[in-house]
Amino acid sequence: MPISAVAVLPDPEVLGAYLQKALPAFADTAWVASVGSTNQVLMAQTRSDAQGAKPPATAPEWPRLLGAHHQTAGRGRAGRPWQDQHAQALMFSCGFQLNESLPALAGLSPALGLASAHVLNTYLSVTSHKVLVKWPNDLMLADGKLGGILVESALRRHYTPRGLFVVIGMGLNLVGHAQLTQALNRSVADWSQTGVRIEVGELVVRLANAWQTTLQTLMSEGFESFMQSWSALDYLRGRRVSVTHQDTVLRQGQAEGVTADGSLALRLENGTVAPIMVGDVSIRWDRQASQSTQAPQANQHSENR
Questions:
Q1: Residue 164 forms beta bridges with which residues?
Q2: What backbone phi and psi angles, to 5 degrees, belong to 289?
Q3: Number of C-alpha atoms within 13 angstroms, CB side, residue 191?
Q4: SS3 sequence, 214-251?
Q5: Which helix (H) or strand (E) holds 97?
Q6: pLDDT of the residue at 249
Q7: How many CA atoms lie within 13 A of 236 on its CB side?
Q8: 8 A C-beta contact, residue 209 and residue 202
Q9: Which among 159, 160, 107, 164 has a CA at the least distance from the CA of 137?
Q10: Which pLDDT tens digit goes with each residue over 51-76?
């Protein structure tokens, strides 16, 4: 199931059958031609328990994986729409059931973005390309957005210990970066630019396993164990950025990595460092403020595609 510059995804049935065999520890794996949103489907499967309805006779079986060749209602962070062409992007979600609460939810998105970048970079070890992470979890190839991750959670109310359901969705551009860049009027990257062929099924398996391991590490060690790795793949560090919410600028300053809980460390004009939590915010590179110290690059936004 290789992907090259001109290839698209294999048939959904073929990919689904491969994943069922390759992920035997998953309670359910499926790949469909089209769906509204893979995240929404998995979140709906947690809803009866998460919203306090009568508990089922037995605990639900997790983890689960759902992928699709096309999403008609795909979403990014803050509810932004995800745009895709049929079978030209890798789109799937995994749902996990945690037996205890995470000590700091702020670290969830950046840790999963980091884990995803590490997996992708194992394919690029002999090339000049490297996937970086733009806080909290955008995947960047050079100055184009290669992919994004949407993390959603729901409290597990009816089981002891309560814990969480966590649903992680990824959209990764495989081909079509030129058309997307023109259509969206900002820089978009795709995997074909690396020149590296990948086995899509293998990539999905490695990402799913990496996400599960990352959740376990977060529960046992917190985000601090990821900070050194983050520094090596931090796309924003040293750049002048603006923090926005619904197109309103909230803060401006210089990105200086992340804090121990996974928040963005933003050095303000007065010299103090403010932690920016994961949430309904966008990080934008302030081109005018950076011209004296940074080479010109495309203005990027933390939204899907």
A1: 98, 155
A2: -70, -20
A3: 26
A4: HHHHHHHHCHHHHHHHHHHCECCCCCEEEEEECCEEEE
A5: strand 89-98
A6: 85
A7: 33
A8: no
A9: 107
A10: 544 555 555 589 999 999 999 865 55
Structure tokens at 248: 């309103």
How far is Cα 79 from Cα 65, in angstroms, rounded to an integer?
A: 21
Domains of the chain: 2-230 (3.30.930.10), 236-290 (2.30.30.100)
CA distances from residue 248 to 190, 242, 281 in whole angstroms, order as listed: 30, 10, 10
- pTM for the model stands at 0.84
* CA 131, 134, 137, 141 torsion-angle sign: negative
- Of the candidate ranges 139-148, 153-162, 196-205, the one whose mean pLDDT is the lowest: 153-162
Reading the block at residue 73, the tokens are 């209602």
Residue 40 CA to residue 147 CA, distance in Å, equals: 19
For the chain, give the percent of residues with pLDDT over 90: 56
Q: Residue 283's closest CA among 262, 266, 260, 270?
A: 266
Max CA distance (Å), the chain: 64
78 contacts: CB under 8 Å, gap ≥ 6: 280, 281, 282, 303
DSSP state at residue 290: H
Is 144 in contact with 182 (CB distance < 8 Å)?
A: no
Burial 129-139 (b: 16+ CB within 10 A, else e): bbbbbbbbbbb
